[in-house]
Inverse folding.
C-alpha cells in the first residue's frame, strides 16, 4: 500500500496525501500584489496535500526581487484571499512562505522608503536582476540596528497574522537559500559583535526570536521553517562548524514546538549534498513533522517515506511543469518537461499553460 498517496495529519490539519508543492519564486506578482493569474496557477496544483507558496515578503524592506508578492498591504491580503480560496476548493492546504530577502536585493526592486537590511554590511557576490535596469551588482546592505531587529521581528509576527486573515492554513519561515534568516545563521554574512553575532547560540538568536514571535501570534501548529544546511546559494559558502550549528538549530526548533521543519537538499541542482547524518539528526532531534525536498521522483519519495526518513516529501520543478503531478505519479504517466526560460518571466507562458492529462 502506498504511503505517498494516503492522508497525513499535519498538526490539526488533514492533508489529502504526503506530497507537498515546494516553494518556488515565479515573479508573476505585478506591483508585488497576488493576482488572478497566480490564483489560477496555485488552483491547478491543488491535488497536492500541502502547497507552500513562493517566497512572500513580510514588509517593504524584504522585497529583494522584481515582481515577488508581499503580505503587508490590504491589496496584497485581498489578492491572497483569492489564492487560498481557490486552493482550498481543490482540496489542498496552503502555507505562505515568509521570505525577507535581506542583502539579496537591489534598490531598483524596492518601493520608495524601503531599505536593504542585513545582519552586517557585507555585499553578496554576483548580480541581481532588475526590471528597471537589467543585471546590477549586489549593493552593500545596511547592518541592522538593535531597533531594526526588533521591528523586523514584529513585521514577521504581523505578516503571520495577515496570512491567517487571508485564509492561509499556516506559514513557513524561509531560513534557507541565503535570505535574511539564514544570513544571521551563517558566519560569512553575520559579523556582528553583539548578542546576535559570534557563537551559534547568538547567530541563531534572530531566527529563534522570529519563530517565537510568529508562533506567539498564530500558534505553533501554524508555523513551519525551511532550512538549507550545506546549501551554497546566494554566496553562502560551506564552513567547518556547519553540522554542529544546524544540529543546535534542530534542538532549539524542537523546543519551540514548530509544526514542521522543511529540510532542502540542493544537490540535484549542483550544490553539495546534505549528509545523510544531518538528515538523520533532524529526524532524531525534531519530534514533529519533517519534510524533505530535493530532486525527488515518485519511487524515491515512496522509499524514503516507507523507511521513516521523513513524514512529507516536497517537490518543486516537477509540480511547476505538471499541474496534475499527483495523478501522473500515481498512474505512472509521462511527465511534462519544465522550461527554465519561463521560470521568472511575467505572464501565463510557462506558468499556467502546462498541459494536464486529458483522461
Amino acid at each position: 500500500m502506498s504511503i505517498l498517496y494516503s492522508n497525513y495529519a499535519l498538526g490539526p490539519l488533514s492533508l489529502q496525501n504526503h506530497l507537498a508543492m515546494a516553494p518556488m519564486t515565479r515573479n508573476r506578482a505585478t506591483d508585488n500584489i497576488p493576482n488572478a493569474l497566480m490564483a489560477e496557477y496555485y488552483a491547478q496544483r491543488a491535488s497536492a496535500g500541502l502547497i507552500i507558496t513562493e517566497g512572500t515578503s513580510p514588509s517593504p524592506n524584504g522585497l529583494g526581487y522584481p515582481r515577488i508578492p508581499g503580505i503587508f498591504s490590504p491589496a496584497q491580503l485581498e489578492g491572497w484571499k483569492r489564492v487560498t480560496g481557490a486552493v482550498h476548493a481543490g482540496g489542498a492546504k496552503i502555507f505562505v512562505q515568509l521570505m525577507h530577502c535581506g542583502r539579496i536585493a537591489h534598490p531598483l526592486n524596492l518601493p520608495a522608503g524601503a531599505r536593504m537590511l542585513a545582519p552586517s554590511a557585507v555585499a553578496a557576490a554576483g548580480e541581481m536582476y532588475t526590471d528597471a535596469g537589467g543585471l546590477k551588482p549586489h549593493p552593500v546592505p545596511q547592518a541592522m540596528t538593535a531597533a531594526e531587529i526588533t521591528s523586523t521581528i514584529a513585521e514577521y509576527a504581523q505578516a503571520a497574522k495577515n496570512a491567517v486573515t487571508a485564509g492561509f492554513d499556516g506559514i513557513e519561515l524561509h531560513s534557507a537559500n541565503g535570505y535574511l534568516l539564514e544570513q544571521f545563521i551563517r558566519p560569512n554574512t553575520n559579523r556582528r559583535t553583539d548578542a546576535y553575532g559570534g557563537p551559534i547560540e547568538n547567530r541563531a538568536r534572530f531566527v529563534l526570536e522570529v519563530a517565537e514571535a510568529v508562533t506567539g501570534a498564530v500558534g505553533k501548529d501554524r508555523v513551519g521553517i525551511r532550512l538549507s544546511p550545506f546549501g551554497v546559494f546566494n554566496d553562502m559558502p560551506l564552513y567547518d562548524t556547519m553540522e554542529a550549528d544546524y544540529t543546535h538549530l534542530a534542538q532549539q526548533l524542537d523546543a519551540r514546538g514548530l509544526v514542521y521543519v522543511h529540510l532542502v537538499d540542493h544537490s540535484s541542482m549542483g550544490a553539495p549534498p546534505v549528509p545523510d547524518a544531518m538528515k538523520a539528526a533532524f529526524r532524531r532531534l525534531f519530534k514533529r513533522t519533517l519534510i524533505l525536498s530535493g530532486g525527488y521522483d515518485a519511487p524515491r519519495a515512496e522509499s524514503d517515506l516507507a523507511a521513516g526518513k521523513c513524514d512529507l516529501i516536497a517537490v518543486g520543478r516537477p509540480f511547476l511543469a505538471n499541474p496534475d503531478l499527483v495523478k501522473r505519479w500515481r498512474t505512472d504517466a509521462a511527465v511534462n518537461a519544465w522550461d527554465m526560460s519561463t521560470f521568472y518571466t511575467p505572464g501565463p507562458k510557462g506558468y499556467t499553460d502546462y498541459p494536464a492529462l486529458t483522461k
Remarks:
- The first strand starts at residue 8 and ends at 10.
- The first helix runs from residue 36 to 44.
- The chain is about 30% helix and 15% strand.
